[in-house]
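Translate sequence into structure tokens.
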Amino acid sequence: MDWKMFQSLLSGVNKYSTGFGRIWLSVVFVFRVLVFVVAAERVWSDDLKDFDCNTKQPGCPNACYNYYFPISHTRLWALQLIFVTCPSLLVVMHVAYREDRERKYQLKHPEGAKLYDNTGQKHGGLWWTYLLSLFFKTGIEVTFLYLLHLIYHSFFLPRLVKCDVSPCPNHVDCYVGRPTEKTVFTYFMVGASAFCIVLNVCEIVYLIGMRIYHLVHKGSKKFPRDRCKDEDCSECNEPVTHLDSKPGSRPGEEMPALAPNLSFKC
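Result follows.
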């Protein structure tokens, strides 16, 4: 895996993300990718070599190891990181599609007309794409956590396992190398994955909440009275007849007509 290309890909998504999305990217890079590359791969690099069994039966240690460790932790985590970041490609591809449409639109309308105010702004179809990517990432995280729990029995690695699979002659005791270290890293990666799930859920709630807020308050924006002379009155909620009313007068209250001064001095 080319981690530099992986990093540049996710960094491109960063400018289209919300605050929760940027925190999610930081957690993925610092607490998952870097820990995986720097430490986790080395911890599990000699799994089979450190897996000792009290028998010399050919093929028995390999059979027991494959039975208790059907999928390597490192390969499972690498697959999880790849799948959990793939939905971010949907956002990048959608923004690229918008930019291409904007370019073609400006070629047909050379007067400076724009199809999008901002191609990276999350509204319309891009909002739905971003929201679906969050659901996909959350579902992938939960699925891999369930698989890890199902395969490795609550993420715990014991020191001693008893094996009786073929071709072992009877119950064989096998010892796992550095079980405490592997258990600590397993819990750490599981905790980072759970924290990413929480961030995804918070971002989903934030996006939906802000969308509902904008829909409820759509068209209720009011301009200050001192700006009404400069703004289009169709965008102001105050009727035109109220714009020039004196301070302290109530809306809808007509100004009293001023009687002409008919008195003359002798």
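Note: The beta strands are 52-53, 160-163, 172-175.
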